[in-house]
Amino acid sequence: MAKKSAIEKNKRRAKMVEKFSAKRAALKAVTTDQAASMEERFRAQLQLAELPRNSAKVRIRNRCEVTGRPRAYYRKLKMSRIALRELGNSGQIPGIVKSSW
């Protein structure tokens, strides 16, 4: 099980991303717009830099929904390999059985 503080920090980051996503997208659109003047683009870049760092989407870490583990994460299932194996062995995930040959 991951530390509660790390899990909560990741949740706070996700909330902050949601809060600033519209503003961040608008500023990014101005910075990449070739028709805008150089001063306008530079001003938008400075405003983008003033936004909180945790409002960037890349700061969110994929974590297992069951244990909070940050590594060996399956995106499709939203869980780690260890949690997947435990739930699969106990028969709680349909279609997953222990392999043997």
TrEMBL record:
Q: Which PANTHER family match?
A: 30S RIBOSOMAL PROTEIN S14 (PTHR19836), SMALL RIBOSOMAL SUBUNIT PROTEIN US14M (PTHR19836:SF19)
Q: What does this protein do?
A: Binds 16S rRNA, required for the assembly of 30S particles and may also be responsible for determining the conformation of the 16S rRNA at the A site.
This protein's species is Aureimonas pseudogalii
* Quaternary context: Part of the 30S ribosomal subunit. Contacts proteins S3 and S10.
List, alphabetically, the SUPFAM superfamilies matched.
Answer: Glucocorticoid receptor-like (DNA-binding domain)
Family, according to the entry, reads as follows: Belongs to the universal ribosomal protein uS14 family.
Query: Which HAMAP family does this UniProt record tie to the protein?
Result: Ribosomal_uS14_1
**A Pfam family the protein falls into:** Ribosomal_S14
Per the record, the domain of life is Bacteria
List the InterPro entries. Answer: Ribosomal_uS14 (IPR001209), Ribosomal_uS14_bac/plastid (IPR023036), Ribosomal_uS14_CS (IPR018271)
**GO biological process terms, semicolon-separated:** translation
**UniProtKB keywords:** Ribonucleoprotein, Ribosomal protein, RNA-binding, rRNA-binding
GO molecular function annotation: rRNA binding; structural constituent of ribosome
Q: What is this protein called?
A: Small ribosomal subunit protein uS14
Any one GO CC term of the record:
cytoplasm
